[in-house]
Design a protein that fits this description.
The termini are far apart. The protein has three helices and ten strands, in the order βαβαββαββββββ. It has a six-stranded mixed β-sheet with strand order 2-1-3-4-8-7, sandwiched between helices. By secondary structure, it is mainly β.
């Protein structure tokens, strides 16, 4: 039996998990949506070409919240974290996630300040859906950076090319006259 390349989408309980997996499949890439409690050995056996950490309703600093072993970032597999996944990457690698004074829910305008692969096809000004109270207050001690925005909860983007991970704190949505595209 021929083995296909595939992406692993780890479900942390967010509302857009199925949509994220669908968008990967829309790009003609095979993917599975699996529960976030997969062990490191199960992930190695699955042998994905990429991993996506989805959003979720938890706070990464709470002991009862789902987490991943830090060793996942040493596998050499590219990782994309979205919303909770962004916070999880930062927290797991030694960053600090904080609770904002005000929650942010709903549609927010974003601006792409630096064009790169993650933002291909996204207009310079776009709409993002936020449903957060937590945010990355301090990035891990790596070659990472974030793009903050003055708001109750900053929109953020983390990147560590050498370590092969990237993360964003929101779910981008953009529209063309005939279609709505999400994630």
């Amino acid at each position: 039996m021929e083995k296909h390349e595939r992406v692993l989408v780890l479900d942390f309980g967010g509302q857009y998990n199925q949509l994220i997996a669908r968008r990967v499949r829309d790009l003609n890439v095979y993917c599975d949506l699996k529960n976030c409690d997969m062990t490191l050995e199960e992930i190695k056996t699955y042998n994905p070409i990429g991993i996506i950490f989805t959003g979720g309703p938890n706070s990464v600093y709470e002991e009862s919240s789902p987490h991943v072993p830090a060793e996942i970032f040493s596998l050499g597999i590219p990782v994309l974290g979205i919303c909770y996944g962004c916070q999880l990457i930062a927290y797991t690698l030694g960053g600090r996630v904080a609770h904002a004074e005000t929650s942010e829910y709903g549609k927010r305008e974003i601006r792409v300040l630096k064009q790169e692969a993650l933002f291909d096809g996204i207009p310079a000004r776009s709409v993002s859906w936020m449903s957060h109270t937590d945010y990355v207050a301090e990035v891990p001690d790596l070659k990472c950076w974030r793009i903050p925005r003055r708001a109750p909860v900053p929109l953020q983007r983390l990147l560590a090319k050498r370590r092969k991970f990237t993360a964003c704190s929101s779910t981008p949505k953009w529209y063309t006259p005939n279609t709505a595209i999400s994630c």
